[in-house]
Amino acid sequence: MSIETMHFLSAQDAIPFLQRNGFKFLEAPGRWWKGVDGKLVRAEMHISAYGALLVISG
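RESULT FIELD:
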């Protein structure tokens, strides 16, 4: 499993990135997913006063 983190200034900046990269919203706060080569790749968004942090694992 690989894990990658990315920082954005806000959730409004992170959401278009997720959508452009094929992630779909998972009906849970801050959770997104997409399928790649038969595997599930998850992205969790953590929002703070410093911006939005994406943790992408798969």
